[in-house]
Design goal:
The protein is α+β, with helices and mostly antiparallel strands and 419 residues long. It folds into 3 domains: 3-145, no CATH class; 188-274; 282-416, Heat Shock Protein 90. It is 55% helix and 19% strand. The protein has helices at residues 3-56, 123-171, 188-239, 244-274, 286-296, 298-303, 321-337, 387-398, and strands at 68-74, 85-91, 96-109, 112-121, 282-285, 307-312, 316-319, 344-349, 353-359, 401-407, 410-416. Strands 6-8-9-11-10 form a 5-stranded mixed beta sheet. A 4-stranded antiparallel beta sheet has the order 1-4-3-2. The longest helix is centred in the N-terminal third of the chain and has 54 residues, at 3-56. It is rod-shaped.
């Protein structure tokens, strides 16, 4: 849920609850005020009747109205503390039951005791109360609507700098030759965020440049001593021809140096892939690359008596030619290396995917670690353990998806082009 939607939901709910409670309280307060006003009128009427009786010693002749009328009847009981009360009343003219406010008290006139009942209709009060509540509810609705619309525009406007910052972060890549430069905003919190991000990306960019420089220098400097080691070993092999023990030791040194050279090149390639130094935006004929790599490995396939099944269609992708060659080469090397003598390797290429499967020497690989660096199966004796990790990194650069499964005693690696 977006922040605005969450804020608007909480704000609207709190406003509605506040207005609801306020409206209920307002209703009772207003009702109390209006009833007190009616009671005041009843007390005024009582006072006028008492003054008239004191002056004339007789009951006044009070004409009744639609909303107020007075009744007199003889009584023997004295009401000590008369108080107004609400009672039900059937209105014949309106043919309906309604509520009236009534004040009953006693008064002596002509040496007789009378019970005086002053009645006042609450119809007008109720109508006025309903009208006020209706207007209030309408105003609350207008306030809620205007509050929603104002908040919507205001919040969108206030959060626009934040979303600009997010867009700039999304579009930023370390391969760009300059650190992230976010503009200064009038909102202090957004401005503080931008300044912090600028400083952070500046440090990251500096670290990236330092690591890139180190990687390039290390790549250049390590190749020379490795080449010297191989040349010296070859010279020593020629000089020690016939000395089986020395040749065995020198061969081990040569194998180790070759493995170290391959490991160095693989790690260097992984570093370049992680740092985004390849752009997969060139047309690549994947079918031609597969055929070329199979031709290079033809002698190895024949020597290991591997049965090859090739079913490939013409596929052109927007990719990087060098990365495409590495991807195909690693897949084929992995399949050929771990196929037992007399086994089969099957290659399928469609516009949707590339699949390479081979007969298994043992059980399934660990699906959680198969693409991790330096992961090797139990039956693996050589290799750097980086081939599948490089395949995964290349797929991430190209936007492909790579998967592994073990079915019918076969290892199956499939790359989906996601197009």
């Amino acid at each position: 849920m977006k922040l605005f939607a969450r804020y608007n939901r909480v704000n609207t709910s709190a406003t509605i609850i506040t207005f609801l409670i306020g409206s209920i309280l307002f209703y009772f307060v207003l009702q109390y005020v209006l009833v007190r006003q009616l009671d005041q009128g009843l007390y005024v009427e009582q006072q006028e009747i008492q003054v008239y009786v004191q002056m004339h010693n007789s009951l006044p002749d009070l004409p009744g109205t639609k909303h107020q009328w007075t009744l007199f009847k003889p009584t023997t009981a004295v009401i000590a503390k008369p108080k107004p009360r609400s009672v039900g009343f059937y209105n014949k003219s309106e043919d309906e039951n309604e509520s009236i406010r009534q004040l009953e008290f006693t008064i002596a006139a002509n040496n007789k005791l009378y019970d005086v009942i002053v009645n006042q209709s609450e119809a007008e009060t109720e109508d006025l109360l309903k009208l006020i509540i209706l207007v209030t509810v309408g105003m609350i609705g207008v306030i809620l609507l205007s509050n929603y619309l104002v908040n919507r525009k205001l919040v969108v406007r206030l959060w626009k700098p934040f979303y600009n910052t997010i867009d700039n972060i999304k579009d930023y890549h370390l391969t760009i030759q300059q650190p992230l430069q976010l503009t200064k905003e009038p909102i202090d919190e957004i401005n503080l965020l931008n300044e912090s991000l600028n400083k952070m990306t500046l440090r990251i960019h500096q670290d990236y440049l330092a690591l890139k420089t180190f990687t390039e220098n290390a790549s250049h400097e390590m190749q020379t001593p490795l080449a010297v080691i191989r040349l010296k070993v070859e010279a020593l092999l020629q000089e020690n021809e016939g000395n089986e023990k020395s040749i065995k030791q020198l061969s081990a040194i040569e194998d180790a140096s070759l493995k170290l050279s391959r490991l160095h090149q693989s790690l260097l390639l992984l570093t370049k892939l992680e740092h985004g130094q390849f752009q997969a935006n060139e047309p690549v004929d994947l079918q031609a690359i597969i055929r070329a790599k199979l031709e290079e490995k033809q002698e190895l396939i024949i020597s290991r008596q591997i049965f090859l099944v090739v079913n490939i269609e013409p596929v052109a992708l927007s990719f990087h030619p060098h990365l495409a060659e590495i991807l195909v080469n690693n897949l084929l090397n992995n399949a050929i290396r771990y196929t037992p003598s007399g086994g089969a390797v099957e290659i399928q290429l469609t516009p949707v995917s590339l699949s390479v499967s081979n007969s298994a020497m043992g059980a399934s690989l660990d699906t959680a670690k198969v693409f991790s660096r330096f992961y090797k199966a139990e039956q693996a004796t050589d290799g750097t353990g980086l081939g599948l990790a490089i395949i995964r990194e290349i797929c991430m650069v190209a936007g492909f998806t790579v998967g592994y499964r073990f079915t019918n005693e076969k290892h199956d690696f499939t790359i989906y082009f996601n197009n």
